[in-house]
Amino acid sequence: MLDSFPNELIVMSAQYLTFEEAETLAWTNKRMMNIMRRNLPQALEPKIDIKKLKFPILEREETLFYLVIHWPYGVKSGPIPFCIRKDDQRRQMAGVDAQTYAAFVQYARYCAVPSNDQIEWEEYAVKTSRLARRYADVPPLPLHLLFSRAIVHHFYFVFCDSDWFWTVINGLEQTRGSFKDKHLVCSDREVLTFEDLDQIKISPFMQKVDKFEWALNYDDIPMVDDLFTLSQFRHTNWMLYGISYGLTAVPFATSEKLTVDTGNSSLTRIIKNFMRAPVHKRKWTLKGLDNDHKCSYEPWSFEEVEKVIRKSGVHYECVETTHRPVTRSSGSSSGIALSKTFRIFSPELTWNIKLSRPHSRTLDDIEECPGFNLAIF
Fold it and tell me: pTM of the entire structure?
């Protein structure tokens, strides 16, 4: 398709590609290769293959930190000092940063050879590259240079501060690296605000997130209607922990994959909302929940849940009822696990609700047990 475009337009388009994508384009034909060689030669340089990269949790305004890189073949780099440079710092430190990064590229190539002895970065920087005389004096690597030629297969980032979150994300967006699997963990419900939503919508890095974890500390889900309905998160695997009253909003999420672990809310209200919510492909698990009715935990019955489904007017049937003994680690019985699966025949899609009571003393339908699990598929 691009082959029919003039060279200037191809060069302009390539500026929005990662180096990996630009290299793929270069190998399509001889003309593309010549264009990339003249205008984007960095894309054809050897890539740094990173198996896993996990960011530490840092305080606000902290820009110097250590990362441990997992190389292929099980090799770990040891702690590597990194920094995030602002524009004026980049110009001032350009010479030092270029020298440090060149040494790091050689170190990455060394680690990529399985037969080489394992060595940590600081030792390599002192003994081989001669960047410093002491480990403590090894200069930090600028973040924007690290990812300029990197292919990161697993990226793991825990954040608890909005400023730090955007400092890292904006720093990554200024690189041309590739991130295959992005795993973001929000450790506090108050981290992101509605002011961040507009930036999330246009952020190139945030257009595809593979897994998003959010610890909610038994409070409402912030921005659920906005975040869950953004098209860029439709294929994101959401994992939510400790949900209270916001749990009733979950049925309206548009994500295909979602897990809720621990929380409390009214079971009948959740079922009502599932029957009202738009139908789409889902593979959801809601576990460790308690039936909360008027601020107190209440027992529930399969009969009342089926009544809610029936009142919604949909065509349904109960396709499976199971019960099995639950045993303690000691081997003795601790009760019975009961479950029922209801198949819902909607015009758009046939889908299932599997409701289970994890611990029962008898097979009776009503019991003093507020706990329940849900699976939507």
Answer: 0.78
C-alpha 294/C-alpha 108 separation (Å) is 59
What is the percentage of the chain residues whose pLDDT exceeds 90? 29
Which residues span the domain enclosing 12?
Answer: 2-45
Radius of gyration over every alpha carbon of the chain, rounded to an integer in angstroms: 26
**pLDDT tens track for 334-344:** 678 889 999 99
Residue 325 located in a structural domain: yes
Mean pLDDT is highest, among 181-195, 227-241, 352-366, for 227-241
Taking only the tens place, the pLDDT of each residue in 354-368 is 999 887 666 554 556
Q: Is residue 153 part of a domain?
A: no
| Nearest alpha-carbon partner for 37 in 46, 48, 45 | 45
The helix or strand, by DSSP H or E, that contains position 201, with its residue range, turns out to be helix 194-202
For residue 230, being part of any structural domain is answered with: no
Residue tagged 């740094």 (tokens): 48
Residue reference for tokens 């027992």: 299
């889908």: which residue's tokens?
A: 351
239 found inside a domain: no
> Measured between alpha carbons, how far is residue 249 from residues 22, 210, 239, 266 in Å?
42, 22, 15, 12
Q: Following DSSP, what letter does each residue of 96-137 receive, concatenated?
A: HHHHHHHHHHHHHHHHT-TTSPP--HHHHHHHTS-S-SSGGG
Diameter over CA atoms, the chain: 76
- For 133-142, letters b (16+ CB in 10 Å) and e give eebeebbbbb
For residue 207, which amino acid is it? Q
Number of structural domains in the chain: 2
